[in-house]
Amino acid sequence: MTYKRKRYSETLKKSIHWIKNHVALALALVLGLFILYPTPVYAMHIAEGILPANWAAIWYGIAAVFITIGVIVIRRRTKENKRLMPLFGLAGAAIFLISVFPIPVPISGTSSHPVGTPLAAILVGPFVSTVLGALALLIQALFLAHGGLTTWGANIISMAVAGSFVGFSAFLLLRRLNAPIAVAGFTAGILGDWATYAVTSFELASALHGSGSLWGMFGAIAIAFAPTQLPLGIMEGIFTAAVVVVVYQRRPELLTHVIPLTTKPMVSTVKEGN
Amino acid sequence: MSHKDKLFSDVFVHRENLVTRIEARTKISFTVVALVINLLSPTIYTPIAIALFCLATLIAVGIPPKLLGLRLAMPLVMAGVVLITQIFFYGTTTLFILPVLGFNLVGYEEGLARGLLIMYRVIGGVSLILFLSMSTPMNKLLMAATWFQAPKIFVELALLVYRYIFVLLEEIVTVKDAQRIRLGYHNWRQSMRSLGVLGGSLILRTYDRAERVFEAMIARGYSGTVTVSYSEHFGRKDFITAVCLSAILVILYLIGQWRA
After folding, report:
1. B247: CB partners within 8 A, 6+ apart
2. Which of chain B's termini has less CB crowding within 10 Å, N or C?
3. Residue B168: which of B134, B143, B138, B198 has the closest Cα?
4. Is B11 in the A-facing interface, judged by CB distances under 8 Å?
5. Under 8 Å CB-to-CB from A139, ≥6 apart: which residues?
């Protein structure tokens, strides 16, 4: 009996200890939020200098594979159809601009910025949008100091690759399941954005956890950015859905590779004047 | 012109001064090597020296310090979060104990040191990027990239992207102004709707313009590739500058080793 009681008290002590540790963790993050709160948050670009050299090199290596495939895809597609080159260039500029659109976030009271790559992947395909996203990231790093040059590889993986592929797959899957375009677009946006957020947190955690637990650190970073990133994901979903619907209503032929023209367009197919 | 407008403009790179006169390849090599030194430095002294060198040079050639501060602020937010997570998660030597709501928050010495090192690396790294981007036009940077054997199609695409950012930005401003005067942003719901239409019309305009751009390019003899090649002369002056910058790199490296 006494032995049992002892075991209980030990378990109790252990759990209290665990809770203490984790409350400390949560509180540490609250402090982090104080820093984050008043500024508009750019969709989690890893800043220059945060990742140590070895991790920066690893992410560069992985990103190089995707970029190489993307460049090959672009080369092949533009060879078949020369018109695509200026189109990709303009689409890249559009992604850049969309990723600096200030979107009002009601909960945190600030404005935030979408990733834009899920939308781009729906329009031009995931491999091409990876390359365009990488270019947008490079220009942002140089121009606005969002992101960095040594962290370019890591940012490509989290934003261009994860955002594009997760968003594109979600859209395609839901369209196969005959979900409405708005629902598919919303899911693509939200999942693409959250994938970016999760991968960025993982990249930061894996590089910075030191001797501590990787998942503890991952949780800490994920919680620190959650108040801005979770609502931002929903905003990105709404935004992606709205844009896809507008494009589909006005020019459904632009989406034939993801939405076959089986149903009648909702408004009209007349090309808009400029 | 407010600082917000300057964020998107490249007025500073077209000015004639000491830093903009440095040849693009030299500047790219300097920045890349310095970034690596910054990242590998075991102490905070190298990043501080790099930041001081870059920021002082930029201020000396007339870049407003306020703008530099604005650009540094955003990366520092993330660096701040990293600093805090490091203090409470990394290390064993207790530095301070913060009693909060009956619980004790333990800050570690090693964590603080590492967090500060990362923070200074961020400042150093961002200053270097600013040094490069605020003194070199993007097209020169991209042309120089072809000299470093970057894939041509990538550079070509980057040039197009860079060109059309400014064109599309103007269109966005026009559409957004039109939406605003029709009360398109008076509440959150309406704002989201307007943003969706804005994004959609941006995409549609992109496609239409791409068509016209293609026609214009064909009319000017476009055959599938834009010939991009870097043909800047590398003279004696450039050589001397390169030697000076290399000396600075060596000094920056040695500063890091000095108290390691």
Report:
1. none
2. N
3. B198
4. no
5. A96, B138, B158, B161, B162, B165
Task: Provide the b/e sequence for A66-100 (b: ≥16 CB within 10 Å).
Answer: bbeebbebbeebbeeeebbbbbbbbbbbbbbbbbb
Cβ–Cβ below 8 Å for A144 and B7: yes
Contacts of B104 in chain A (CB under 8 A): 20, 24
Cα gap A176→A242, rounded to integer Å? 20
ipTM of model: 0.87
- Do B215 and B250 sit in the same domain of this protein? no
Number of structural domains chain B divides into: 2
To test the contact with chain A by mutation, choose from B8, B88, B108, B152 the residue with the greatest count of A C-beta atoms within 10 A, namely: B88
One domain for residues B190 and B157: yes
Residues of B within 8 A of A224 (CB-CB) are 81, 85
pLDDT of amino acid B54: 92
In CATH, which of 3.40.710.10, 1.10.1760.20, 3.30.70.1250, 2.170.130.10 is domain A46-263?
A: 1.10.1760.20
Least CB–CB distance from B103: residue in A24, A136, A247: A24
CA atoms of A252 and A123, how far apart (whole Å): 11
Residue B242 shares a structural domain with residue B196: no
CB-based contact A139 B204, cutoff 8 Å: no
Q: Render pLDDT for B177-210 as a digit per residue (tens, 0 to 9).
A: 898 888 888 888 888 888 888 888 888 888 888 8
List pLDDT tens digits, range A160-185. Answer: 999 999 999 999 999 888 888 899 99
In a domain, B141, yes or no: no
The residue of chain A nearest to residue B34, with distances taken between CA atoms, is: A150
Which residues of chain A does B91 touch, with a Cβ-Cβ cutoff of 8 Å?
210
- The stretch A124-129 carries a mean pLDDT of 91
Q: Is residue B97 part of a domain?
A: yes
CB < 8 Å to A272, chain B? 204, 208
For residue B243, is it within any domain? yes
Asked if the Cβ–Cβ distance from A85 to B206 is below 8 Å, we say: no
**In sequence order, which residues have a C-beta less than 8 Å from that of residue B171 and are 6 or more positions away?**
B202, B205
Same domain for B98 and B202: no
Interchain contact, B78 vs A46, CB within 8 Å: yes
Q: Are A104 and B35 inside 8 Å of each other by CB?
A: no
What are the tens digits of pLDDT across the range B101-147?
A: 767 777 788 888 888 898 899 999 999 999 998 888 888 888 888 88
* pTM tops 0.95: no
Q: Residue B130: list chain A partners with CB under 8 A.
A: 145
Quick check: A194 contacting B, CB < 8 Å? no
Query: What string of DSSP letters covers A92-126?
Result: HHHHHHHTT--EE-TTTSSEE----HHHHHHHH-H
Question: Domain limits at B122?
Answer: 1-136+232-260
